[in-house]
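Internal tracking record. Fields below are filled automatically when a chain is submitted to the structure queue. Please do not edit lines marked as system-generated. If the sequence contains nonstandard residues, flag them in the REMARKS field before resubmitting.
Queue: standard
Priority: normal
Entity type: single polypeptide chain
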Amino acid sequence: MIQYSFIAYECINAIGNSLELNVMLTEVVSTFIRCMDAIGGRYVQIFPEAKCIVSIGKDFEIPQKLSGDSDGFEIHFNNNCYILDFPIGDGHFLFYFNHNNDLQLHGTMLSNFRTKLTNAIDACQSVEQLHNLNLTLTDQVVEEKNKNAITEKLMITQSRMAIMGEMIGMIAHQWRQPITIIGMVSNNALMDIQMGNLNTVQLSEDLDLIDKQVHYLSQTIDDFRNFFRPNKLPQKVTLHELYQELIIIFGKNFESNKITLVFEGDLFTPIVTYKNELLQVFLNMLSNSKDAFVETHKKEGKITITSSISDCIMTITINDNGGGIPPSIIEHIFEPYFSTKSKQHGTGLGLYMSAIIVEKHLEGNILVHSDTEETTFTVRLPLQLTQEAYNVY
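SYSTEM-GENERATED OUTPUT FOLLOWS
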């Protein structure tokens, strides 16, 4: 009796030592085989499909009809050997013996362990289900993240196309004067030819003037085209370089609308970032400022861009005196498709995409502050992007 108590103690201590089903069942089956002097053992799952989860020791044929007694056990006799069949939950413990000594006693002992075995198996299966659920959720998160990434890229493209529309208008504005000059000079030359007053010296000067205007038109196209070239990797750039491009793009338009653009602070410290994306952020903000001046009929609009550096962070503020943003609106300006402009003049994506670009692509942050007279956007960027940022595109 003492020896049997020791066997029972060993067997019960083998139950539930792991929350991984295969590991736990392997320990249980191997311990029971050793303590009950069996020559083989299995745990067979019947539902939802029949399969052997654990098999240890000598292989044996599984009885065609297993026990249906959920509270007891059954002993099968086959080919001069005995199989102790102990059903539990959706499966069966099967132990293979070449004798029938103490099989009833072993079956009774297993029956006494049924509750603990059931709880241990349920715990392992719950952990496995939770693990599978986590894997499924992880896959869903990755899938949604990929969908969101595609959506963001499409929205960035849409935002850039909106800016392109404005820039085409700026190109047309900048081309108007040189085209007028070319037309006037060529008409004058043509009239001289028709009237027989052709002066080769004057014609040479006129052609030289036309050539200069054509060169200006070509240079304008090159300047604007650079903005739409995708840069797949971050590059070193200074704010001075970016500001020169802003002047090229907005210069004539701001001049005709009497808008002053001022740059202050540290302009020559290089920053490693996505140049065109940062330029797109500036274009969105300057375009919004210009629209604010037009809407409020501001006669002397002024935009001041100030930059400073501290602790490897570049802080850029864009301030305009085009009137403030109402408190009821300012909390929504970074939301997608939110715009106070008409559908013909605004997509509602400019500031939303600016926030996406700054926070997700440039690893920075963007804030806005406004009162009744002025609005200030603050952009903070690292001087050097981390390695993760190189995988954005």
